[in-house]
Structures are given as C-alpha cells and as structure tokens.
Amino acid sequence: MEPPKPSNPLLFLSTFIHQHWSRLGTELATRLGDSTRALASNLQRGPTTRRLPPGPLFASVLQPKHAAAATTLSSDHVAKTLTGTAVYTVSNSNNEFVLISDPDGTKSISLLCFRQEDAETFLSQVRLRRRELRSEAKVVPITLDQVYMLKVEGIAFRFLPDPVQIRNALEMKKAADIKGGFDGVPVFQSDLLVVKKKNKRYCPIYFQKEDIEKELSKVSRASRGAGLTPHIMVGSLEDVLRKMETSERNSGWGDLIFIPPGKSHSQHIQEMTK
Length: 274
Known about the structure:
Blueprint: H1 23-30, H2 35-43, E1 48-51, H3 75-81, E2 86-91, E3 96-101, E4 108-113, H4 116-129, E5 138-143, H5 144-152, E6 157-160, H6 163-175, E7 186-189, E8 195-197, E9 200-206, H7 209-218, H8 221-224, E10 233-236, H9 237-246, E11 256-259, H10 265-272
Parallel strand pairs: 4-6, 9-11
Antiparallel strand pairs: 1-3, 2-5, 3-4, 7-10, 8-9
Helix pairs in contact: 2-4, 3-5
C-alpha cells in the first residue's frame, strides 16, 4: 500500500535546523550590510578557477517500514525539480569559475548569488584584488539544476541568499516566537498551492515570499473552505535538498518543484510538463 503523501513537506524543516553548510554562507546571509567586507576578506587568500559546465537544495514525512529495500530519489530527479532558476557567479574569459577560500582556508569554493547585484559586488572585489582578472572577469548566470549536478560531482559551492528573503524568513521566525538566526537560502511553501496535473502531484516551493503571497491571493475563499486562511511555511533550500536526497521515491518528497522567481506555479509546471 502506498504511504500517505505529505501535504506540507517544508513543515519538517520549519524548526530551522542550524549549523549546516559553511559559516561563510551564514555570515554573508545574516549580516546584510557586510557583503562587500566579507567578500574582500576571503578574496585576500586569492581566487582560483574551475571550469563552468557547458550550456546557454515542514510536516514530518512518513517513511515506509521497508526503507532498506526502497529506492531513493535519483540525482537527475532532484536536479530536474530545480530547472529554470538562475543564480549568478563570476567567471574568467575561459568560462571558468573564480573560486574563493572558505573561512577556514581549508578549501576553495564558488560563491553563487541569488541576486545579480550581489554577483556584481563579488566581481568588483575580484577585479580589485586580482590584477590578472581585471579585464576578463565577468558575471555569468548558471541554473540551479546545473549547480546541483556539479555538487553531485564533488564541486563545492556556497550560496549568497537574497537579503530581502533572509529578512522575510527572520520576520516569520519572530512572528512564530522562534529565536535565533536563519541559516541557508530561504524557501517558502503552502499546502493550499499543491496541485495535480496529468495524474502527478506537484508541491511548489518558492524562493521569494512575495511570489507565494501573490499566488495565495489568487486562491478564492470558497476554494480554501470556510474559516481556512493561508499559511506559509519557511525552510532552507539546503535542508530540503538533503531531505530529498535521502528520501524514497514514494515518500512525497519527490513531488516538490522549485518555482523560479517571478513565475507562477501554473506557468512553470506547464512549461515543465510540455
């Protein structure tokens, strides 16, 4: 018998699990006014390069008892759910990543920004501190599905979230009387937006709180049911991806689909199912 599908996958992550990924991501995300200083500090160790890929990361989920024999979601499946969302980084003229050292100086990482203007700040620091890159370094987009597959291959990345969305996540925590900061890239979800199309269930996950609020405003009071009000949950992209990677195909986590900023879930799902 197929286990029940979770209506609220992100509720599992709404306890805001801390201490994941690198301190660099946390510092850059929570200190909204210190992006330039943090970047400059890490760039002093000297950026290196890694080639970019060719081409134009909530309610407790019930797991089947026979977990050992079950098949987890494939990397290709997880990557596909991220299709269409772009982040920005800095490359050289050979289409190679410009890397920076992590806070401990133990390894080099690629910084991926959710806002192009933050990538431009990164670019200005690269040009300031690496003379050989002053004329050839540039900001380039890369889609999250490409990033995820590179991560599977062992390439290290750190995200610089949109500070507006970090502020939104912190305000939601404060409203829920949950103390502490927020680690990682905020993502937002509501069970009122779960849809079925062509016999498949989709649970849309948004990178911008404004986008999900706009979607919920379209849901009529009648369709929500009497007395039912929209409820938005927040978690981190990194935790969601980790949970997807370790969950079984029929667990419900395979229903997630990430909606690119500025798009409606109906538009994106239609494009994905053509």
